[in-house]
Amino acid sequence: MATDRFQSAVFDEYLAKANAHAAKYLRTLPDRHVGARITRDELLAALHTSLPTLGDEGGDVIDLLASQVDRGAVACNSPRYFGFVIGGAYPVALAADWLVSTWDQNAGIYAISPLVAVLEEVAAQWLLDLFDLPRESGVGFVTGCQMANFTCLAAARHAVLKRVGWDVEADGLMGAPRINVVASAESHITIDVALRYLGLGARSARRVESDEQGRMRPDRLRELLATLDGPTIVCAQAGNVNTGAFDPLREIGQAARDHGAWLHVDGAFGLWARASERHRALADGIELADSWATDAHKWLNVPYDSGVAMVRDAEAHRAAMTSTAAYLVQTRGEERDAVDWVPEFSRRARGVPVYATLRALGRDGVQDLIDRCCARAWQMADALAREEGVRILNDVVLNQVLVRFDNDDDVTRAVIDGVQREGTCWLGGTTWQGQGAMRISVSNWATTEDDAARSVAAIVKVFRAMRQR
């Protein structure tokens, strides 16, 4: 019944049942069909009913949920899931996330959960150290890079308007000096959305030409900045969502500083290259920026949702985010109130799995994770390039691979569809410089050489079968 009283036996029963279902899912994950195999109507038939008057027995509800996962869920945490940029979940990260749900802490302020506040304080410092960013920076644990970009750009909005004597938090944007926003032609859509949320407008961004790999051209940036007066924010990118390419951040950073502009870097997955000696040079100069956004649920492989916003000017960060109220018990000392650093008031303790994963992996473990994923991307690109009729469209510098088949959009899309239906792996499609492409993103800690080889074999098999029709 839905009215089960607070009894440890009830928790024991439900948690044991959930644990058994979870263990079965994880055991079968490496070999299961990666895509979903059921329609919306079939799922509705299994799950939809009139809202019960008395409520069903809780154990039966758990069983019902688990009964549909094999057919209805895409195995995004599979070692052969290469769609979008989605990591898996390290065992320690998943276990820590279970504790987060069990503790049920509202992580908004220190007074509610000193434990979570301190764990997130430590995790924040570890991240700044791992990325070798200014240690005095403000750090906020948000839902994902969308809100990380929003948070960083809110701090930027505050800072550039404060320099010209305008208090945007108190007075809004009506009558404020216009902010120049400059972004690459290849900036991620989350930058546009953040500009919408901030009242700056997506169309306000002045676009800078990019090169054949999607990197912002710093010469064009300087030309544009020379025409602009007033408060200015420049948005650069570490890791193009299609090619994995990095904007030339040192040149961009110097251009922004020369102009007196705030530089924000969207490093949803690319920022993690800073944790690898082998790939660190890709992000050279990123330390010149004023703010950085990234995801932990991508390359750190913690469960969804987990993004990170980092701002060099901690006071600008706090001013843009903080909330106060008479009834709140907020710190005036060194203790950390998360509400000072993130848009949410009440929030999940999402920094705890970050702490657990960083502590369990250590610096060397994070570096190994990044390097292994990149190696698997190169492995897949090299193997696919040897097949007649297959072309790799990008320079594979990180974990992203763009593949085109028979130099034809329809064939490429048909191969993508065929691979998704075949089920050995799952990957998506994109359009790159006007051409249809298969997009492979390797971000899962569990992806092995065998997983990459099996996936390539499945892709080639589908392509060859298509050619023989």
Automatic annotation (TrEMBL):
Gene3D superfamilies linked to this entry: Aspartate Aminotransferase, domain 1, Type I PLP-dependent aspartate aminotransferase-like (Major domain)
Sorted UniProt keywords: Aminotransferase, Decarboxylase, Lyase, Pyridoxal phosphate, Transferase
SUPFAM superfamilies listed in its UniProt record: PLP-dependent transferases
InterPro entries: Aromatic_deC (IPR010977), PyrdxlP-dep_de-COase (IPR002129), PyrdxlP-dep_Trfase (IPR015424), PyrdxlP-dep_Trfase_major (IPR015421), PyrdxlP-dep_Trfase_small (IPR015422)
Cofactors demanded by this protein: pyridoxal 5'-phosphate
Pfam families noted in UniProt: Pyridoxal_deC
Domain of life: Bacteria
Annotated GO MF terms: transaminase activity
Family the entry assigns: Belongs to the group II decarboxylase family.
Entry-linked PANTHER family: GROUP II PYRIDOXAL-5-PHOSPHATE DECARBOXYLASE, MIP05841P
Protein name (Swiss-Prot/TrEMBL): Aminotransferase class V-fold PLP-dependent enzyme
Protein source organism: Lysobacter stagni
